[in-house]
Queue: 2 jobs
Job 1
Amino acid sequence: MLRIASLCLLAVAGGAVAAEPEFALTIRDHRFTPAEIRIPANQKVRLVVDNQDATPEEFDSHALNREKVIPGGSKAVIFVGPLAPGRYPFMGEFNAATAQGAVIAQ
Amino acid sequence: MKSRRLLPALAWLAGSTLAHAGPDDYVVMPTVEYGEREIELRIGTASGEGGEPRASAASIAFGYGVTPWWATEIYGKWHRNGATSFDAIEWENRFELTEPGQYFADLGFLVEIERPRDRAEGYELRIGPLLQKDIGAVQTNFNVLLERHYRSSEPEATELGYQWQLKYRWRESFEFGAQGFGDVGKWNDWASAHAQEHIAGPAIFGKLKLGGRQAIKYDAAVLFKLSDAAPRQTWRAQIEYEF
């Protein structure tokens, strides 16, 4: 049992690295600002998403394989990458008509 | 700290005993979607061996993402092995222990309690770590699950099972890959190779967005026997309405 738990912890933490670069993203009036966010390719980064609307939003990106609900008036951290150079669209699933954006890895 | 939530479950299991995967079993994910409600239908059927009837199972569930790190789901389960009958009520709890992408792999934990209709089977507890790792466009999952019956008329033993999945994230509405399930017997005294059950095969997945919070998610697989004790062929499918 302990061996299984230890193996899991090793598998999870094995590649832990310190202090990823941080990028800020804001949701206001059901839109992302900036709508395109540029990050370094081949490097893990933290997106700090600040939802300034009163209503929750879901950061949703099939390209990034991330789905995260961010309650109104709160922040969430979303880890992204390392990504090959390219454009990775994301959206706010609850307000998809306006909340559209993309991560540009370059 | 999220890892503290793991300790009570581990302590409970240490003091005390798996059953093999049903034909409608599915690969459990380590992630939680906060505030999401879902209605889920699972079905599965496995070919009978040696003149035994085909074994089929179905379940319907309601689930809810209670917090950003805890999702819970209640199942009603039916099975058909000759005749159809209500089988059990199951309470599934998934805990997201690490933020997706933060570490080398994502870690979750499953705690599932089942109360079979047949009271002689007692209670069934299934727990274990849920692991996920993205490798480019391929999502990989591997779960190690321990299962034990309590207060049952049968001798109690803790059994070890596993689930795995590979998914190529092609398009959101249609993805493809493979799945596998297996049970090796007692966790500390594995059964002989011919008595173990291992099945695997191709699988498809997808999510169809309906607008707002609503979406339909599906996955289905055809699983073939990889060991003597496993059913020759198992078909399984799952469909979820998220809202």
Job 2
Amino acid sequence: MPQKIIYIPRINDSPADFAELFQIWDEVNDDFENVKFDFSQCNFLRPNAVAFLGGLARLIESRMGTAVFDWDTLKNAAVMTNLSQNGFAGHFEHTSSRKTGNSIPYREDNVRDVNGIMDYLEIYWLGRGWVQVNQPLRDAIVGHVWEIYNNAFEHSGSGIGVFSCGQHFPRYNELLLSVVDFGQGIPAKVRNFLSSDPRAKQLTAAGCLRWAFQSGTTTKSKEEPGGLGLDLLKEFVQVNQGKLEVYSNEGYALIDKDGEGFTNITTSFEGTVFHITLRCDENLYRFADETNGNVPF
Amino acid sequence: MEIIIKDVIGPRCIIKEDGQKIYEKIHGPLTKAETVTLDFDGVTQFASPFFNFAIGQLLKDIEEKDLRCLLRVENLNETGKLVVERVIENAARYHSDIDYRKIVDDILEQQAKESE
């Protein structure tokens, strides 16, 4: 079987960078493909790329192909340090020992490991002393971010699970987390759910994402109330002046303090990426409901 | 009836399976108009799937005003209060039949405006 070589470029986390990742997905999205990833052109790799490429390698393997990261081609010391520190290299047969630095580990969850994921968020993502928030707020943040994982495991239908990676950027005072699945994607799921309404075919991917982010909409069965997870997450990010970006099929959602926007993109992939950016400043955090003091019962 | 949630579920109330466990314990007594107290002392983390199943489902059989009289919740932290309140609002709307056609109409209208 021939081996395809994919040259990993420099990948940041702008929409153009995500388009590069989806282009790579498109290039290897054939059954029974053997792929070698070459790092010789790569001098920068953000955690969204790490999570995506790790998941893509597992996707290829799940289709009986092989995926090899050619570590001999990785000459950039900063990228090598980063991939060693976050454990990605160790996951893919590099013998580096993992240190810590500002990285947040690369993580693979084939199945929903609730306590493993919550500990990851609490201990490795928030808990390294770079986000100065009190314990109740820390609990609130991980609860809201859990909604991303819950959404992926409940709705995506990803046969290979969920892939995460994060990083702390002291210079920008930002904390990132990317969560990737290779399921059917939110627009595909929404169109399928609404298939009894012929007009739903006219919904663009952006329209489907807008539908999914509305409070109370869910693609679950009529017996199960739901549809709040994304809404609560959206509200949390806006209150705390963070940023949430979602790429799914050919749709893109951007939620930040200025509002929410849903657009169609030209380079798409089958699956969903949640990319969340938090600011590491306690002054920017507060409980969404701390001003109204409602008691439900 | 009183349930110490931490003893049954632990400190994380975030998944639907745990919500279902609580629902199965309290659904019967509440439909018989018995008072139920849920004590969340020691529970620190909350997410919507838990409350959708523990409490949201109750609104299929019990009116919201009756539920608010019969169900007592103690020691719930700020996030828990936020999530449960939103779940109740949402479930009440959900069980009264959310108008999906209207939502599709609104989004198609928005799409049309954006393409002009």
